[in-house]
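U., I forgot to send this yesterday:
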Amino acid sequence: MVDQILKERQLPWETEVSLTLVDDVTIQNLNRDYRGVDAPTDVLSFSLEESREEEPAFEDLSAVKILGDIVISLETASRQSEEYGHSLEREVAFLTVHGLLHLLGYDHQRPEEEAEMEQMQEVIFGQWPQLTRLGNEV
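Result:
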């Protein structure tokens, strides 16, 4: 799935993304150290291509080799999957897509950014019907 998303964005085939699954204690420590929020969260993304406010992210996509790291708390993902009534696999897939979009320069700090990111997530999940089917396998 990640590979296909990167291909659709015309990133070079050598592009790397790391995905690490952790517990709540680990992600809380990362969240505190990097975002100043001393609480667990579901997913964190650490881009190796951060841009400043005034410049677009990934201006030269052909030069990107390592996008960054996605870190997902399986404990939080498990709680969220129960809360939303779908499988842990679907929740982890959603969080992976969400984290990947952050690495690609999308954000949700402002309402228009949030709408764009939600639309991208819906488009991606629409291309992968098996992800939607995972929702009924709790």
